[in-house]
Amino acid sequence: MTSKPEIRTATIEDAPLMAKLEARIFPEDPWPAADIQGMMSVPYVYGHIVSVEGEDVGYSLIQGAPKAVADILTIGVVPEGRKKGVAKALLEAMFDVARELEVSSVYLEVRQSNTNARAFYQKAGGVEAGKRPGYYRAQGAIPAEDAIVYQFVL
Ligand SMILES: CC(C)(COP(=O)(O)OP(=O)(O)OC[C@H]1O[C@@H](n2cnc3c(N)ncnc32)[C@H](O)[C@@H]1OP(=O)(O)O)[C@@H](O)C(=O)NCCC(=O)NCCS
After folding, report:
1. pLDDT at 139
2. What is the pTM of this model?
3. Which residue of 43, 61, 110, 150 pairs with 73 in a disulfide if CB–CB is 3.0 to 4.6 A?
C-alpha cells in the first residue's frame, strides 16, 4: 500500500534541502541553493516540501500577486516518487495558498518538449494560455526553447 503524500510549508532554511531535491529532479540544469534561497526571500513566495513515508520526494515554489494572479515557479518530484499523486498534492497546496491570497488565476511556464509535465498540468485542469518564444535560453549544447503558458482558473 502506498502512503499518502505529506505536505509541509518550507522556510528559507529548507533551501539546501530543496536544492538537493532539485538536483535529482532536474539533473541537467538544477537551480543552486543560493538561487532557491534568493527566491524564498522574496515576499509572497511560498515553498512546499512533500514527503512519503518520511522521505522527502518533491518540492514546489509559487509566487503570488495578492488579489491578482500567482505563478508557479517550479514543481517537481524525484523520479522514483512519480505517478503516485505526489505532484497533485503539491499543486493542491499551492492552490490553497493562491486562494488565501484571493488569487483567481495561477499561471506557469513549461518547456514545449516537456510532454510529461504538460500531460500532468492538463489532467489537473490547466489550459494552454499562450507561448513565450525563446523563454528558455540556449545553454551549452541545449538549444533555446519556447515555453507554453498554462493557466488554472480557481
Ligand atoms: C510532471 C511531474 C511533476 C508529475 O509528478 P507526479 O508526482 O508523477 O504526478 P502525479 O502522480 O501527482 O500525477 C497526477 C496526474 O497526472 C498524470 N500524470 C503525471 N505524469 C504523467 C505523465 N508523464 N504522462 C501522463 N500523465 C501523467 C497522472 O497520471 C495523474 O493522473 P490521475 O489524476 O488521472 O491519476 C513529474 O513528472 C516531474 O517531477 N517531472 C520532472 C520535473 C518537471 O518537469 N517539472 C515541471 C516543470 S514546469
Report:
1. 86
2. 0.96
3. 61
Contact 48, 9 (CB under 8 A): yes
Find, among 84, 43, 60, 79, the residue nearest to 7 by Cα: 60
- Mean pLDDT taken over the chain: 96
* DSSP annotation string for 97-115: HHHHTT--EEEEEEETT-H
Is 82's C-beta closer than 6 angstroms to any atom of ligand 1? yes
Q: Which domains does the chain have, with CATH numbers?
A: 6-153 (3.40.630.30)
Q: Is the pLDDT score of 1 beyond 80?
A: no
- How many angstroms separate the alpha carbon of residue 80 from the centre of ligand 1? 12
Best residue among 90, 120, 122, 151 to mutate for probing ligand 1, ranked by most atoms within 8 Å of CB: 120
In a 13 Å sphere around the CA of 18, the CA atoms on its Cβ side amount to 28
Query: Is the C-beta atom of 87 inside 6 A of ligand 1?
Result: yes
Q: What is the DSSP letter of 3?
A: P
